[in-house]
Each structure stands twice: as C-alpha cells, then as structure tokens.
User: Fold these one by one.
Assistant:
Number 1:
Amino acid sequence: MSSIPMLRQSRSLFLRGTSRVTDLHKRMMALCAYDDEYLKARFAGKVAICTASTSGIGYAAAERIAREGAKVVICSRRQEKVDAAVKKLRDQNLEVSGIVCHQAKKEDRQRLIDFTLRTYGGIDLLFASAGVSPFSGYMLLVTEKQWDKLFEVNVKSTFLIIRECVPHMAERGGGAIVSHSTTAGVFPEATRNLNMPYAVSKSAVIGLTKVLVEPLAQRNIRINCMAPGPIETSFLRRYIQQFVPGETGLPKQAYDENFMLRFGEPEECGSVVAFLLSEDASYMAGEIIPVCGGINLREMSKLL
Ligand SMILES: NC(=O)c1ccc[n+]([C@@H]2O[C@H](COP(=O)([O-])OP(=O)(O)OC[C@H]3O[C@@H](n4cnc5c(N)ncnc54)[C@H](OP(=O)(O)O)[C@@H]3O)[C@@H](O)[C@H]2O)c1
C-alpha cells in the first residue's frame, strides 16, 4: 500500500479521467509507483539484528523490517519462543533466522553476532530492545539485586550489544541503531511511586543514546531511541499486575491520560523502528521518539 494516501487518492482520480493526462499527472503517478516499490525495498540487501524479538514490540519490529526487505536475525532467552517466532515469520516467506540470546550474557551476545555474520555475512541494523521490570513501587524500597538486574539488562547490556555490533557495521560502511526506552524514561518523576527504578534505568538508555551520537557518527552510524507509552504486550500485562494484583486484563484507568483512549499495538512501534533504521531518517540522530498516543506530550517535550 502507498504510504502517501493523498497521492494514492489522486492516482485513482487520474486513472478514472485518463483522457487528459498532463505532465503533472504523469509525474505524480510515477511518484506513487516509486513509493510502492520503495517501501518494499527499503531494506533490500540489509542485515538486521533485533534483540528480545520473539514477541511483542521486538517481534513486530523484526516482522516489519523483514517485510521491507531485510534479512533479520531474531532472538530471546528461550529456544521454544525463538523456534515459534522464526516459523511464524518464515511462513510469511520472510528471510529470518533465530538464535537464543539473553542480552545480558556476554557469551550469548557473541554467539548472536557470530551467527549473524555466518548466516548473512554482515550487520547493518540493530534494534536493541531487551528490557526488564523486576520491581514495582516506591524508589527507596528497591532491593540491590533488583537494581542490579534493571541496570544490567536495560542499560549495561544495551550499551554492550551496541558496542559489539559497531565494528561490523563500520566494516559495511555504516549502519543504524535504535535503542528502546519508554515514556517513563523521558519523564521518570511522573511515575511517582509506581515504578521509578525502571523509569530511571530507561532514562539512562536515553542518556546513552545521546552520548553515542558523536562516536557513532564518526563511523557513519546513526542512533536514535524509541520511547513507547503503554503498548499491548505481555510485558505491559505483567507490569500492570504488579500494581493491581489479580488484574488479568488491562484496566481502563491505565490509559485515562492517553488522548487516544487506547493502548498502542506492537505494530505501531515496529513501523517507527523501521523508519528510524531506514534512510528515510538519514538526518536524524540522538532523537528520542515517543510513541504514546499523545500522553503527557506537552510535559515531555520540555525534555526532548
Ligand atoms: N509494552 C509496553 O508498554 C512497553 C512500553 C515501553 C517500553 N517497553 C519496552 O519493551 C520491551 C519489552 O517488550 P514488550 O513490551 O514487547 O514485551 P513482551 O511481549 O513480553 O516481549 C519481550 C521479549 O523480550 C524477550 N526478552 C525478555 N528479556 C530478555 C533478555 N534479557 N534478553 C533477550 N530477550 C529478552 C522475551 O522473550 P524470552 O522470554 O524468550 O526472553 C520476548 O521476546 C522492554 O524493553 C520494555 O522496556 C514496553
């Protein structure tokens, strides 16, 4: 489908009135055709790694990037989830392979990179998506173990997987990276006593993204950060159950402040990741992109 609905509409109007096709009409029709082809081929010849990508947002991003022509390596901690996700994507004739990788384990990251190089010959794109939320509640009550886990997975392993992929991207002449924060990371104090330690770790992901812009730009690699609001995934369900024990669905009050009055879908993040990784975002680096149905946008924009 065209990504430019207005042009598509114009095209159908022109097709109906074929007797007076002007140069302008021809140019616009050519642009529509270009748009269709362009979207199909946006990542032709590119190799992408998406971590934490056997369900939810990571999966949706991997699917979108593969649909647009990339060869994609997906991964997560559990073999059965990797197998199921690879099958689902290959059933759509997408060029996808998978391997187990706990993003916080050095040997797993090394295996992931080696596997990608062996399978597809290089690395151009990375979506570093893994994140955990092992604690909910008041900031001063987080245990040291929970704090360590938050920072080990959300911050340290994000930095390390990026640093380990960079030489391989540079070898191919450059690349693009998306890190994964959250609206809570943009505006951690707004989480009050709900989940400040998680929010702080995701603020660190924003800081990490910003400081990496310069050293990566020297290697022709762009990095940007996606900051979703509540997205309908099992992560969000677990997160909400921490605050509302016994709650199995997603309570309405959780999106009361959202102007769209609904949660986001993983695919609505996948398309943003694809944009940020693509040449359509070629002059963007160090940007923190909220995908949140407008929640607190005015407040957050003070920090962006
Ligand atoms: N959902 C939201 O509302 C929301 C909003 C903002 C940001 N986020 C971010 O999204 C990420 C969670 O994704 P999701 O919401 O799509 O949840 P999800 O559907 O539960 O998916 C999480 C994925 O991550 C994998 N995973 C978990 N820990 C991992 C690790 N240490 N290493 C590698 N893979 C790991 C899981 O598979 P295995 O169990 O097999 O490892 C699964 O594939 C986090 O970074 C979170 O901060 C989510």
Note: Residues 51-58, 76-78, 81, 101-104, 129-132, 153, 180, 182, 228, 230-231, 233-236, 266 surround NAP (CB under 6 Å).
Number 2:
Amino acid sequence: MSALLEVAGLTKHFPVKRGAFGFVSGHVRAVDGVDFELRAGETLAIVGESGCGKSTVGRLVLRLLEPTAGSVRFEGEDLLALSDSAMRARRQRLQVIFQDPYASLNPRMTVGAMLAEPLMLHGLAGTDAARRARVGELLDLVGLRPDHARRYPHEFSGGQRQRLAIARALAVEPKLIVADEPVSALDVSIQAQVINLMRALQDRFGLAYIFISHDLAVVKHIADRIAVMYLGKIVETATTEALFRNPRHPYTRALLAAVPLPDPTATRERSLLEGDIPSAMNPPTGCRFHTRCRFAKDSCRRDEPELAASPADGDNGPADGDRGPADGDRGHLTACPWWREFPPASSIVEAAGQDQDRIRLARLQAAFVTAQREAP
Ligand SMILES: Nc1ncnc2c1ncn2[C@@H]1O[C@H](COP(=O)(O)OP(=O)(O)O)[C@@H](O)[C@H]1O
Ligand code: SF4
Ligand SMILES: [Mg+2]
C-alpha cells in the first residue's frame, strides 16, 4: 500500500542573528535529516524532550515553515513544489491541533462562526441552513451540543476547548491531522477522554495522525508507530508494541525508564538522562547522544550512526528471544550500532514502582479504562 505521507531528508536550520546589523552568527539545527512514512488511517507519534525538533517537523509537514532541505510528499504530490494558492487548497486535507486550544481559538467569535469559517473558506456546505446543520453535526461528533454554537471559547473548559479545536480541524474533512501536544495541558482524566475521542474519530473517518508528545505514556494509547527524536534526528522508530517491549536506543531506554522501578538497575538506567540537552546550535560530533549516553565508546564521539535496521534483523529467529527482530512489518530502526551489547531493557517498563511517575501512569491507565467504559 502506498504511503499517505512520505518525508525524506527533512531539514530545518534556523539562522541565529546577532547584533544591531543582524549578522548571522550560527544556525539552530532544529531538524537535521528526518525520514518517515505514514499510511492512511495510521498514527505516528513523534516523541522526545522539549527542544528536540518535534514541533518543527510538524510545521514543516504542514508547510507552515519552509525547510532548508528535504521533501514532503502527500498523496504522492510534492507539497514543497506547490504554489501558495495550490498549497492553500491542499490545506483542506492537512489540519493541525495545538497544545493550547485557547490560543488558537478566536475569543471574539462564537463557536458557530468559528466552525462555519473553514466551511466557507473551502466552499463546503453552501447555504446558511446547510452550514448550521454541519456545525451542529461537528459539535455532536466531538461530544458537544448543537446549542454550544452560540457560546464563546471562554465559556468552555480546557478539555471542551480541545474538542472545539478538533471539530474545527474536522470541518474540512482532512486526511491527516498534525496534533502537537494536544493533551499536554489537560488533566490526566481529561487527557484520556480527548485521546479516546481522537481514536474514535480516526476509526470513523480513516484519519491519519502525527501525534507529537513529550510523554510516552500518552502516546502508548494512540500510536501505531513511534519515532523518537533527539537533537533534530530520529534515533529510533518502531511499532508502539515493539518500542515498549524492546527499546534499543539508549535514549529511548532512558525515556521509558522515566517510568521507574524499585530495583537498582532501574536507578542506574534513569541516570542516563542526567545532564542538559546540548545546544542545537552546536550539537555533539559523532553520535549526538554521546554526551549523555552511559554506553558511549570512544568511536561514538567520531562516527555518526545511521538510523538502520540491525543487520541480523529478520534472520536470527527465536533463539534471540525478545531481543530479536520480528518487531513489525516495517522494521525497527535504531541509530546506535551497539544496542545488542546492552543489558535487556524490557524490564524497565514492566515492573512496578511507587513514585510519582508510576502513580501518574497508573492513574492515566485507569482513566482510559473508565473513559472507555463510559463511551457510548
Ligand atoms: N522560529 C525559530 N527560530 C529559531 N529557532 C527556533 C525556531 N523554532 C524553533 N527553534 C529552535 O529549534 C529547536 C527545536 O524546536 P521545536 O521544534 O519547537 O522543539 P520541540 O517541539 O521538540 O520542543 C529548539 O532549539 C528551538 O529553540
Ligand atoms: S552510538 Fe554510542 S553514544 Fe550513541 S547511543 Fe549508541 S552507544 Fe550511545
Ligand atoms: Mg513543541
């Protein structure tokens, strides 16, 4: 099956200007050669710490930013080659939801006017009556009432405002929605409701999502596949199931270990993420993670690892147990050639601990169970 979205070599370097004359004194290498594919109806999560380039990838895909290099093909068409007016027409099929719905909803517009606007812009639902009906239908789809159309954004809660943002994205019947930290500002129980809504809408309309989050626990409930980013690059990509069961890259292991364990190995694993993220203006040589990687070797400072399938993938059979391949039909890629040498990481996520993160995860999971039960 061909991909809905194909991203290759995507790169964005922001010039940094200094002084009164605005001389360019360097570049922030926000995104540095990113490749991925997405099929219709599928969810790819992009995860990583703040500043690693997730939002920039999202904005590049939507062409809200022009890339320094690389290509974005949507439904087989090169988006970067389109004129501005042709791109405006494509926007109908590519929508976005942001973390803070309040900032993206016009406070002076009623919900009805706000939802009617994209319909008019794209010539959908021509008559007033048809528009009103469609607005009511959109509100119903996201679990709100048709009479909410008369209200203003400030009259809604955070979770309801995110529902409104989703309704507005849906208005134009998109194929792909880029959701940038859509639930990060919400309470845990509300997060689950919004994610369950997004999943239900995905099933109903065959939507594809790029779901951007710094939180792996949230992503687990919605992503088919996960791409882990570090300093502008994807360091690991796999199916959600494979990534949680068998994380390979030391950075992924460290992110997963933020769900902690009571045993001493886990404590060591957590220490992986001590230290600051290096500057994206001057990323480390070789493997960008080497300054924080507890497995780093001398050669890691020099040699930049490729994001690659392990050479043995696909032929080392069951003898290799769960450290092995067969992780999903489109492979498990890792930008670390040494991952097979590390102690197994699967225990990190499975055992129970008692501190805040663990409790948070347990609450989140419980909330999902409740929200699913309550769903009509
Ligand atoms: N418009 C911009 N100008 C300069 N630097 C930027 C701009 N937008 C983002 N950056 C920088 O690019 C890097 C990646 O940012 P971003 O994509 O927002 O990361 P994330 O979403 O993962 O937190 C950061 O170092 C950020 O400061
Ligand atoms: S290449 Fe080296 S520094 Fe980078 S993740 Fe692997 S072991 Fe660590
Ligand atoms: Mg961001």
Note: Residues 260-271, 314-329, 349-354 have pLDDT under 50 and may be disordered.
